[in-house]
Amino acid sequence: MTTASPKLRIQEVALHYDDGQTRALDGVSLEVAPGEFVAIVGPSGSGKSSLLNVIGTLEQPTAGQVYLDGKAYSEIRDASLFRRENIGFVFQSFNLIPTLTALENVVVPTVGGSGRVAAHRSRAQALLAQLGLGARMGHLPGKLSGGERQRVAIARALINNPRMILADEPTGSLDSANAEQVLDILKGVIKQQGLAMIMVTHDAKVSAHADRIIHMRDGRIEQEGGT
Amino acid sequence: MTRMLVLAGLMLVACQVDAAGLNGAEAAEKMRQARLSDGFEARMDVLVTLPDGAHPAPLKLSVIGQMTRERQRVLVRGIAPASVKDRYIVAERVTGGSVRAWRYDAKLKPQAVSPMEGIFGSSLAVWDFFTPWWGWHKQEMLGAGKVRGHDCDKIRSQADQPADKVQYVESCIDSKTGVAFETRQYDARHVLQRESSVVALIRKESGGQAAKKSRVKDGSGKVSAIDVYAGDEEYQVTAETFAVLDRLSADQ
Amino acid sequence: MTLLEFAISNLRRRAARSGLTMSAIALGIAAVVALTSIAWGFEASWQKANDARGTDLIVTRVASENTMPTPFREERVRQVLAAMPHVHEVVGLLSEMLTVSEDAPPVFVFGWVYGSYLWDHLKLQQGHWPREPMEDGVVIGSIAAETLHKKVGDFIEIEGKRFAVIGLFESSAVVENGALIMTLDQAQLITDKPGKVNVLNIKLDTTASEAEVQAIKERVKRELPGYVAITSGELVRKNAVVRISKAMSNATILIAGLVGALVVFNTMLMSINERTKEIGILLALGWQRATVMKLVFSEAVVLSLLGGAAGILVGIGIAWGLEHVELMRGKIDPVFSVPFCFAVLGLSVLLGICGGIYPALKAARMQPSAALRYE
After folding, report:
1. pLDDT given for residue B13 in this prediction
2. Cβ neighbours of residue C294 closer than 8 Å, sequence gap 6 or more
3. Per-residue pLDDT averaged across A61-70, rounded?
4. Alpha carbon of C241: minimum distance to chain B alpha carbons (Å)
5. What's the CATH code of the domain at A52?
6. What gap in Å lies between CA A116 and CA A113, rounded to an integer?
7. For position B50, what pLDDT does the model report?
8. Where are the domains of chain C?
9. Fold of B2-251
10. A117 vs chain C: nearest CA distance in angstroms?
11. What distance lies between CA C326 and its chain's CA centroid?
12. Residue B4's pLDDT band (boundaries 50, 70, 90)?
């Protein structure tokens, strides 16, 4: 499925390691529209996470090109700045910093950037309150439940007003109730803010929430279609 | 202050020569030359340890010496404790190379004593101040040695007179500093009579090194630790300095 | 949250290691502070002693590089000097460090020309000054009085001669407070140095210009071969003990610097290795490589700054303690100043920066995708 004005366009992207011996991605093309929720599914080693890394500028493709609003990734001069301004990551294992409180974890992506510290703090507080963690802001991650931790991670992903969310198995470490809740939150957020979300998952129940599901195998898109 | 430390080298057999590449006679001659002085004075603390480990009261001594080609004489004055205060030992080297010594004080008339006798009960002998062995005819280079990790050249000096108590002296001259780090005196039966060693050095004005602290052990096992704390390398010997010795010499 | 707050939080997270690292830095800095302050203090104290006496130039033997320069016969030299223009007074000084009590460490014994200007700067606290050139009496400095447990009216045996303590004085120079002073004639007598002095002190008249002082120096060089006229500062700087203590303090700075930098390096490198995944997360969250470097540097600098500050306090404590140890009383006068403390803090920061360079570069060069996979 393509849209008339694609926000994210992936064109014949390949990602090879070991001088081409290992082909993590092999000619992947994909378009994601604004506000669209795309789930990427496939067996382990199919290239799901590699695709997410390339979209998130964590890795540079060996061949092909990725465009965001028509701008090629190869023209990006500062990938860190690009990520800060455009992408929010949500990881399976939350990846919170254990010695920082929930609130501090949320503001971590703003450290060293522009803007006033107090403004970042206010926004983080608002995000946490919005995600139902208003009373848990001062808690360390160790004192939070899995669902709460992932909600902190979602707030962290949203702190810099990204244009898309890249989520790698965001419910993989949660029980079904918490998984459902996190998914609802993510869906609500992208709907409310008009963000695109690309989510890697193994879970068919999770992928069922997506607007579109991409099946990958051996670094290629095997099949794509609506849910 | 450095001069007083030079004196330690001068007196306590720690003279500076570069013995490397010389034969025994040449090295001994260099040591002898290095000891020549119109006058010197050194004051030293001497801590005696008896063979049973007991320590008599520490001695404080002043030593005045004159070592020219013509005359070689030494005056030792006791400064402390009270038992040796203002007691003197005077000695000279006479023709033929032997050393003779007298002791005296304000009340006591000079009495002849053996130059080998320990000064005021220490193991330090006035004979050592003259280092007569550097003037002996037979000097033999024994080769390279090592003293407390220092490379040195060993020299054996053989006495000219077969009747002398000390028949040969073995010295080890540090090849880097030129200091005689160790000296051992033996009798005819090869029994060690006295050994002296330099414990600590200090830099001299000339850039060389001299002994500051030394240790002398006699045949009985009595040890004297010597620390030269003051002195004057250019001491002005006056007519008064060795007046007693001059009178004694005139009498004889 | 600022970068600094984050850095401090990271250090607090590993409190034991941070504490040990800071302790190591503190010890190195303490050694630097103690030795440097003592070396400078030693120099300053001797200079103060010479300056306080009002001496403009000092004449010694050329080769003299010791605390107490080599003694020499003064008469001819003094006559030549006294004939030079602007020379107001030429007085001799003899000095030795002598043991005067079995219970106390050696003290400086000075012999000063009776009635000369050298005595003028001392403040008599009790008793009186020598009343004649051959008086069998000594005046005792306040610190020497304490260390030797002597007061006015007591007796001290110096080099076998009994002296009455006739006065107690206070000087602005700590080396004089730790000393005994007698007339030059007595000092020459007990040290068996008749007619000899260690140095000749020259007091110039007030009209002597810098150029004229220089001219006197040149004339001494020309007319008195083997002798040199120098200022008190020059004499002290030439002093072997001052040079050795300064060399030791410099060596300590170097060693402490190297050790400190290595300690910081080791700590930061271990910390970076342990936090590989965390750094990957930060990079994934949009932290720029420069920000990661700043974080590592901040941690290194905070460590070294806190260690340095603690080290300065410990160093001041050590120097103060040494100053009051019986053996050192009246001989050292450690010098501390605000610029000195800031310089030491600067050295600490430099250690932090040097030790942090490689870990910071390593952290910043991490590939976020690889770091995220790191377990």
Report:
1. 40
2. A112, C3
3. 92
4. 12
5. 3.40.50.300
6. 9
7. 96
8. 3-45+242-373, 57-230
9. outer membrane lipoprotein receptor (LolB), chain A (2.50.20)
10. 6
11. 18
12. very low
Confidence of residue B2 (pLDDT cuts 50, 70, 90): very low
Pairwise CA distance, residues B27 & B140, whole Å: 9
Does any domain span residue A3?
no
How far is residue C353's CA from residue B200's CA, in Å, rounded to a whole number? 42
Quick check: B6 pLDDT over 50? no
Q: How far apart are CA A59 and CA A52, in angstroms?
A: 9
Residue A93 placed within a domain? yes
* Bridge partners of residue C90, in order along the sequence: C202
Per the structure, the count of domains in chain A is 1
What is the 3 state secondary structure string of chain C? CCHHHHHHHHHHHCHHHHHHHHHHHHHHHHHHHHHHHHHHHHHHHHHHHHHHCCCCEEEEECCCCCCCCCCEECHHHHHHHHCCCCEEEEEEEEEEEECCCCCCCCEEEEEECCCCHHHCCCEEEEECCCCCCCCCEEEEEHHHHHHHCCCCCCEEEECCEEEEEEEEEECCCHHHHCEEEEEHHHHHHHCCCCCEECEEEEEECCCCCHHHHHHHHHHHHHHCCCEEEECHHHHHHHCHHHHHHHHHHHHHHHHHHHHHHHHHHHHHHHHHHHCHHHHHHHHHCCCCHHHHHHHHHHHHHHHHHHHHHHHHHHHHHHHHHHHCCCCCCCCCCCCCCHHHHHHHHHHHHHHHHHHHHHHHHHHHCCCHHHHHHCC
Rounded to the nearest 5°, which phi and psi values hold at A141?
Answer: -55, -35
Confidence of residue B206 (pLDDT cuts 50, 70, 90): low
Please name the helix (run of DSSP H) or strand (run of DSSP E) that holds residue A75, with its range, or none.
none
- Rounded Cα distance between C133 and A22, Å, is 101
pLDDT at C47: 76
Which of helix, strand or coil describes residue B52?
A: coil
> Using one digit for the tens of pLDDT, what is the confidence trace for C211-270?
999 999 999 999 999 898 988 778 777 776 777 778 888 888 888 888 888 888 888 888
Interface test mutation site (partner A, options C274, C279, C285, max chain A beta carbons within 10 A):
C285
State the pairing for strand pair C161-170/B192-203: unpaired
What ipTM score was computed for the predicted complex, to two decimals? 0.87
Query: Do C369 and A53 make contact, defined as CB atoms within 8 angstroms?
Result: yes
C137, C164 in Cβ contact below 8 A?
yes
pLDDT at C66: 46
HSE (side-chain half, CA atoms, 13 Å) at C343 = 10
Write out the residue range of the structural domain in which residue A186 sits: 8-226
Structural tokens at position A203: 């879970």
Q: Per-residue confidence at B20, pLDDT binned at 50, 70, 90?
A: low
- Check contact A-B (3+ Cβ pairs < 8 Å): no
Which pTM does this prediction carry? Answer: 0.63
Give which of A151, A156, A82, A83 is closest to A120, Cα–Cα.
Answer: A156
Interface touch C288/A81, C-beta < 8 Å: yes
Is A125 a domain residue?
yes
In this structure, chain A runs to a length of 227
Q: Which two tokens stand for residue B70?
A: 């013509």
**Cβ of C71 and B3 within 8 Å?**
yes
Q: Which amino acid, residue C319?
A: A
Q: Report how far apart the first and last C-alpha atoms of chain A are (Å, whole number).
A: 12
User: In chain A, what residues touch C290 (CB-CB under 8 Å)?
Assistant: 112
- At residue B92, the pLDDT reads 94
Alpha-carbon span C3 to B246, nearest angstrom: 89
Residue among A80, A85, A58 nearest A69 (CA): A85
Query: Is the peptide bond prior to B51 cis by the omega test (within 30 degrees of 0)?
Result: no
Q: A80, C6: Cβ pair inside 8 Å?
A: no
Query: What residues in B contact C196, CB-CB < 8 Å?
Result: 232, 236
Question: Is the distance from CB of C45 to CB of C54 less than 8 angstroms?
Answer: no
- Tens of pLDDT, residue by residue over B115-130, are 999 999 999 999 999 9
